[in-house]
Design brief:
Blueprint (H helix, E strand, L loop, with lengths): L4 H15 L14 E4 L3 H12 L4 E4 L7 H7 L3 E4 L1 H7 L2 E4 L6 H7 L1 H4 L3 E4 L5 H4 L1 H9 L1 H8 L4 E4 L6 H7 L8 E6 L2 H14 L2 E6 L20 H7 L5
Parallel strand pairs: 1-2, 1-4, 2-3, 4-5, 5-6, 7-8
Antiparallel strand pairs: 6-7
């Protein structure tokens, strides 16, 4: 039987429609893979939001075999692995581990961290981190992270609220919640802004990395549950 051009066209359109939800549109890049180092409250929450936005995410811990339930819950875009695997996997990585781990991470993974975009979500507390927290208070947390993660393209992000706030406020209607950022590398900051938007928030660049002290734990800019316009006003930024 001779083929019918009209029937062929209809079938082609149907196939394209069926695949539309599974494949990226032609010319549209795949979402950036992201490594998440630390699968606790912040890491699992923000990583899960990125997965919902279409990013492949590799969650890393010292015992990746313990992350099987998290990976199953997050779906096929989620993987588990080692810190080294997360650094190799991600176009950017979210660092969400206790601050006292930074010196060892910087030493053990110095080569992999060099040139890597790192969204630094760690907070330093005296009760847990001891002298390292005192150093962060004195030097500023941005400078302290840069000291212990030399060569990384650090952007302070996702440190100024707890995981419950991020889970509740992601993609909220009536004005997205602002997430303050600080970094010295313009390209890294731009990548971080995109990842903040994909997670369901509005990025507000407060300034260079040293400006991270303005929204560090214990500062007036920490814990602000406000819109971007309100955050810019609170930080004294030009509208």
């Amino acid at each position: 039987m001779a083929s019918d051009p009209n029937r062929r066209a209809v079938l082609t359109l149907a196939a394209v429609g069926a695949l539309a939800g599974a494949l990226p549109a032609r010319g549209q890049p795949q979402k950036m893979p992201v490594g998440v180092i630390g699968a606790g409250n912040i890491g699992s929450t923000i990583g899960g939001l990125w997965i919902k936005a279409g990013h492949p995410v590799l969650f890393a811990s010292r015992h990746p075999e313990e992350l099987a339930d998290l990976v199953k819950e997050q779906g096929p875009q989620a993987k588990a692995g080692t810190v080294a695997e997360a650094l190799a996997f991600g176009g950017a990585v979210l660092l969400a581990v206790p601050y006292k781990a930074y010196p060892d991470l910087g030493r053990d993974y110095a080569r992999a961290l060099a040139g890597k975009i790192v969204l630094d979500a760690g907070d330093a507390t005296r009760a847990r981190d001891g002298d390292l927290a005192a150093e962060a208070e004195e030097r500023g947390i941005g400078a302290t992270s840069a000291k212990y993660l030399p060569g990384a393209r650090i952007v302070r992000a996702f440190n100024a609220a707890n995981s419950k706030v991020f889970r509740t406020n992601a993609h909220r209607s009536g004005g997205l919640m602002a997430v303050p950022l600080a970094g010295d590398d313009a390209e890294a900051v731009a990548v971080a802004e995109g990842l903040v938007r994909d997670a369901g928030f509005d990025p507000v660049v407060v300034g260079p990395l040293d400006a991270a002290k303005r929204f560090a734990m214990g500062s007036p800019g920490f814990g602000l549950d406000v819109t971007a316009a309100e955050a810019r006003k609170a930080f004294g930024l030009v509208p």
